[in-house]
Design brief:
TIM Barrel; 222 residues; binds zinc ion; globular; 33% helix; binds D-xylitol-5-phosphate
Length: 222
């Protein structure tokens, strides 16, 4: 199975929350395929962001592109249910936040969403072994989660290549998403290593022209 189509998923963590609906519509018009929605609880990660009500508000505002919910919360199951109700498309969580990873993944699927696991920079890919074949996506963190605007950890590139090989050997369509410090000057290397889904927060929302920002990212795909 070869790599799937490339997807840019702007992380709204770097958007202007006072005008969030408008910001999301603008990045979609500018060429974003998905919207990446970072949920932080000030417990699993040292920051607090937005919850299911904001997800539902975006859907009610007319956002129809996939909403890619990245849960950085502990515990996860109640929020999985709330985000499924709120219109999430995919839901990813960190395996260390669930008492029963298999059950939490099944819950996501049963509620009609696409399940994924998130691997922190210091977590081994081996953690994926029992679950990988049933995942829609793996999200590899290239920064420690909690904040936008951090610098890409270069050692993660090797992990991308390794996971790409494992996914290809499985012959399954599992998306390989990368999150943290993705910029126009490193997206080529990240894409060459085998990622197909690219979260970018500050590289898009901190620019004045979202169209140019997204096109610059896309023009550097390998
Ligand atoms: C970090 C979040 C990321 C973050 C990415 O904990 O999961 O999605 O917003 O932001 P940038 O692209 O600025 O590193
Ligand atoms: Zn994220």
């Amino acid at each position: 199975m070869s790599k799937q189509s490339n997807i840019i998923a702007p992380s709204i963590l770097s958007a202007n929350f006072a005008i969030l609906g408008k910001e999301v519509k603008e990045v979609i018009l500018a060429g974003a395929e998905w919207i990446h929605f970072d949920v932080m609880d000030n417990h699993f990660v040292p920051n607090l962001t937005i919850g299911p009500m904001v997800c539902k508000a975006l859907v009610d505002f007319g956002i129809t592109k996939p909403i890619d919910v990245h849960l950085m919360v502990q515990p996860v199951d109640d929020l999985i249910k709330m985000f499924a109700d709120a219109g999430a498309t995919s839901i990813t969580f960190h395996p260390e936040t669930s008492n029963d990873v298999e059950k939490s993944l099944q819950l996501i699927t049963d509620l009609g969403c696409k399940p994924g696991l998130v691997i922190n920079p210091d977590v081994s890919l081996d953690v994926l072994d029992p679950y990988l074949a049933d995942l829609y996506m793996v999200l590899l963190m290239s920064v420690f989660p909690g904040f936008g605007g951090q610098v890409y950890i270069p050692e993660v590139t090797k992990k991308i290549s390794e996971l790409r090989k494992t996914i290809d050997n499985l012959e399954k369509n599992i998306r390989l998403e990368i999150d943290g410090g993705v910029k126009e000057d490193n997206i080529g290397e990240i894409s060459a290593a085998g990622a197909d889904t690219f979260v970018a927060g500050s590289a898009i929302f901190n620019k004045s022209n979202y169209s140019d920002a997204i096109q610059n990212l896309k023009s550097n795909f390998s």
